[in-house]
Amino acid sequence: MAPSGDTNALRIGLFGAGRVASALAPALAAAGHQLVFVASRTPGPAQALAASLPGCAALPQEAALAAPPPADAYLLAVPDAAVPALLAAGQWPAGALVAHVAGALPLAVFAARPRVRGGVLYPLQTFSPGRRIEWPSVPLFVEAADPAAEATLLALARSLSQRVALLASGQRLHLHLGAVWASNFTNHLLGVAHALLAEAGLPFELLHPLVRETVDKALAAQPSPYAVQTGPALRHDAPTLAAHEAALAPHPAWQALYAQLSASIQRAEVRAREVE
User: Fold this and answer.
1) What is the value of pTM for the model shown?
2) Which domain holds residue 109?
């Protein structure tokens, strides 16, 4: 990361004080950038985050939008649905660089605000309180409406990570979709497994070696994780599948999900055979 006082340091105004903002702001400060303010609809989180950053003010969101303090870039680390409203409400200085950090939100969201130079700074990572993020290894993807904004955002991204690339909105949407399957859905399924073991009085830790081997094996698999699929669905083990679905009778939603995922595994196996 860039040392404090670096001539490439930027003054940054941050909207949002949630999970992404709370991980991104200290990383930016550690890279030598000056967080001018943190603005949020809820004062408590903004005040707590600003207090951890040298020289950073906590502002009510309405005040920051009505008169944004001078900054080299304004980052919108807010829910996707809130971005258009913030862009519309902000009295942005002419030519201001305003960037969101969303995976699924296109660059076109800035089209209605011709006074600003729009951009995207998307970190491909999951963020939770108390979890340390190794920013140098986090892929950061940049998109911008003009070359100057692109250059600024690329420099900002490279001050945080060693894995920086340009990525257009359409590809970024597909990347975000893949990330939801790989991370969010996987985490949900692990939560289901935890609940099922708890019902049987079994510790979730019993699954830890299996989960680690599954993930390690999938990441190393060629040509894709489909190549190392195992389990009763792949084997077409009808008695086991039936027994599992019967055991899930108290949880109809999970029972239906089990059947859908098993069918998806079997369809993937058929497609793989057809390619061979």
Assistant:
1) 0.92
2) 11-167
